[in-house]
Amino acid sequence: LTQKELLAKYDFCEIRTDLCKLSSNSLETLLKLNSNVIVTLRENKKSPQSNLNLIKCAIENDAKYIEIDIDSKIKKEALLLITNQLSRQKKKKKKNQLPKIILSYHNYHFTPTTDFLKTKIEECRRCGSDIVKIVTFANSYEDCTRVLKLYNEFSIKAHNDSSKTKLIAFCMGEIGRFSRASSIFLGAPWGYAKADAKSLETAPGQYDYKRFRNLIFPLKKYPIPILHNIEKIGIDGSKSIAQRAILISGFTKNLSGEIANISDCSDNLRALELVKNLIPGKNLLRKGHKWYITDIQDNTKKESNKKYYNVGESGLLARCTLAYCSVNFKDYKIDGCGSILNRDFSESVKIIDNNGGSCSSSDNGSYLPIKLTKGVDSKKIQIVADTTSQDVTGYLIALASKNEGGTIEVVNSVSDNYINLTVNVLKSFGFKINSKVSGKKTIYTLFKNSKIDKTPYHISYNVESDWSSAANILVACAIKSFKNNGKRINLPLQLFAKNNSTNQPDMEIIKVLSLCGVKIETCNSKICTLSANVLKGFKYNATTTPDLIPILVVLASFCNGETKIKGINRLINKESNRVDSILTEMHRAGVNVCVKGDYFIIKGVKGSNKINEFQATSFSSHNDHRIAMAIIIYNQFSHDNKQQKMWIDNIECINKSFPSFLKHLYNK
What we know:
Layout: H1 3-9, E1 13-16, H2 17-20, H3 24-33, E2 37-41, H4 48-60, E3 65-69, H5 75-90, E4 100-107, H6 114-126, E5 131-137, H7 141-148, H8 150-158, E6 166-172, H9 177-185, H10 209-216, E7 222-223, H11 239-251, E8 255-260, H12 266-278, E9 282-287, E10 290-295, E11 308-310, H13 315-327, E12 333-335, H14 346-354, E13 358-361, E14 370-374, E15 380-384, H15 390-402, E16 406-411, H16 416-428, E17 433-438, E18 441-446, E19 457-462, H17 467-483, E20 489-490, H18 509-516, E21 519-523, E22 526-531, E23 539-541, H19 549-557, E24 561-566, H20 578-589, E25 592-596, E26 599-604, E27 618-619, H21 625-637, E28 647-648, H22 659-666
Parallel strand pairs: 1-2, 2-3, 3-4, 4-5, 5-6, 8-19, 11-12, 15-16, 23-24, 27-28
Antiparallel strand pairs: 7-28, 8-10, 9-10, 12-14, 13-14, 16-18, 17-18, 20-22, 21-22, 24-26, 25-26
Helix pairs in contact: 3-4, 4-5, 9-20, 11-12, 11-15, 11-16, 13-15, 15-16, 17-19, 17-21, 19-21
């Protein structure tokens, strides 16, 4: 679009005189089309007088705002000119017709100290700025925290400031992108976006207009109902265990599984579909709550000519399929849909390359689709697992399916508990696996399974209830009890308090609730009742249980005192960047949450934890099932006025892991 077309299309625009290379005459022409603009002057090759002429033109033609960098070489001359011009214009125009002055500080390389930024704010205020703008480049989430905390400092001083100076403060860069939205929730009068997806950024990390608007004002698509009996929501079978059981019985010849309690979540259905399409010698049959995955005895089914497989939005399925195809060399292309297309699979590709295999991708091997071009040496596989354990799970299942034995050497594992879960499920299907730990290295040795060497072997397996899903319900019940003066809540949840088979990592939720002061009673090894007279801040390392973090942030927002949750670096490459998603939605809600190193720091306040005046009525799930459930549960208890209807833009994503939650929510 041309400059004139943009001014006609959008109500409020910024005119960057340095980038547009405008003369005073051309600026006057644009302002006659739309004067509701910010006329911004940056350092450029124009002469000082030319820039001063642009300021004069902006004032005379009723520009709404004029922005000048506080470190500009012509700052003094510009401010003097503005003062003189405004004095003259006051005699001719009403006060609301005079332009407001924005004084700004930009740092395109890093974020200075808090004291330095405060000094810049005070300098802008002393110079008579109506709006102070602070924009820095974020090299870490802590940089964003430092900038966003300026709103708290600024609001305290602005409260006693009769001039009512406003603040715009956010960070540039990919890491700082979320702060553009958070700044509005914290009090900025507006944000900055490029016109559309094809337009060039004027600063790194800009959203396009449509995406930014939808993030600030999510579509009011689904109302968030109040769940009066949230404790009655049934818990589905564990998605993590079900997927492993499906793939083990589906990928392995002569191994048949009768698997009970597989939920209809989308990830499980994708796993079943994958086995059906990828493995020619397997038959899938459903009877009630059981799935039968069996070998076709006549073996007449030929391998499909199809060499393209879609894993949906499941990162585990993608990595397991890549591992299976590389160990049993299949020159297939692995693709996905939705949020998974934004997830980085560079570590999975490195494993293939480092173990003698190769693959290709339209994006240098980092993102789906990925096509296998050469298999790996499966006798000894080496994996660096410092970002995810899913690749290790994939190769354990792949080696088991080949049934020739082998070793996997794992270095710097970040989630031993999920690897152990895979090992336990494999053992339940008759595989023998030994592990040996030496420092930061663990060697897993798989032995040939004689039970399936020549004859079919049948396993009956029951998938346990999912602790990741249960964590949402248990947290909701804890908050509900606390809000009702410690009322005991009966829990008809079929959850074992102590599980001796797979030990799902997210059973840790019981430990966290205890740290908060929640009392949990068991009977017959099952959780029966829960009560919370108090909810107190806690410290918890969630590095090995990152899926708990979204709902733990919600829990912390209702606790008295400060909570520290470690492990947020594990959240970046999920269905969404969950660090961004959590910060954006919690800032929207007014929750006091920030980042320090690898920690979320949440300050819960008794009665109310609002840190802003932004009246949020709609929230964004970021197309992430765990974010969506956390938002819905937060909104059950966050406000006393239940007459205010709340909305969320997407709930279908919850089907990825917890369809029973969705069915109960809307009685579907």
